[in-house]
Amino acid sequence: MNMRSALRLIPLMAIGAAAAFLLAGPLTSLYKSNAVAGRPQPSASGTIDPHASPTSCPASLPMPKTATTVTPPAAPALPFPVWVNEPLGAKVRAGASSSTAQLGILSQGTQATADQRAPDASGSVWYHVKQASLAGWVRSDLVVTTAIHAASGLGWSLMLPPGYQVAPSSDPALTTILKSGDDLPFLILQTSASDTLTVQQVWSYTARGGEQVSRVALDTCKVTSAWARPDQGWPFMSAVFLGRDQTKGRSYQFSFFAADPNSPVVKQVLDSVALS
């Protein structure tokens, strides 16, 4: 089974794994001990200073906002650069169909130029791309239209957009990825020799595929003015757990944090993951 299939087919653990990790890991300092156990009551005061210092905290957090529908970004005008996000690379075809001859393959991270687009019989969009002397068609879901750079750790690698960086860590089994200018990690990635984690009850928002999405409360004593954030101090946590690898004896937990329950950046990064 290839790495791409492993990512999609390995049973994914529910949100409880991510919540348990948050309570036990380095993010403990960001959360109240009971922050993920249930919804808080609305604050009794409507005059809380949105710029309060970490030592001046409201008694409780506002209720989280309801989810909003995300409009996909418009396709860029041709020609435009693309980068291969697929860990197994993007096959370059003679036509806009997987049934046409393969002309070559562009490895993950490679930049090319798209100068045409066309749908196939199933409705999938293809780009005609050029990279050095190679020219042909690639499926659009295998590439992204913003620059990406590689990050890797103990048994894993992935691609990150601009502005996202791996934070220094003394623990090779624990990786924190930060978005420049944000006060909350974008991703906490834990590598473990065990596929058993304690389940902790959280408020579950929805689940799609193998990805579990929940809301988690930020402690405004630890994250300054968390309640005044666009997510009202209740970011969405997308939790993906990859079960124990039979040859390496590892399991991987991805805990993403975003204001959007259907964050395209979360999907993009998950699509780029490769396990070794």
In summary, what is this structure?
By secondary structure, this protein is mostly beta strands. It has 3 helices and 17 strands. It has helices at residues 3-9, 15-24, 264-272; strands at residues 80-84, 90-93, 102-106, 111-119, 125-131, 134-139, 143-144, 149-153, 156-160, 164-166, 174-179, 187-192, 204-208, 211-215, 236-242, 251-258, 274-275.
Note down, in words, how this protein is organized:
The chain has 276 residues and is mostly beta strands. The protein has 2 domains: 3-38 and 147-275, Protein Transport Mog1p, Chain A (3-Layer(aba) Sandwich); 80-144, SH3 type barrels. It has helices at 3-9, 15-24, 264-272; strands at residues 80-84, 90-93, 102-106, 111-119, 125-131, 134-139, 143-144, 149-153, 156-160, 164-166, 174-179, 187-192, 204-208, 211-215, 236-242, 251-258, 274-275. The strands form 4 sheets. It has a 7-stranded antiparallel β-sheet with strand order 10-11-12-16-15-14-13, with helices on one face. The chain has a 5-stranded antiparallel β-sheet with strand order 6-5-4-1-7, with no helix packed on it. A hairpin with an 8-residue loop joins strand 2 and strand 3 (102-106). The protein is globular, with a radius of gyration of 21 Å.
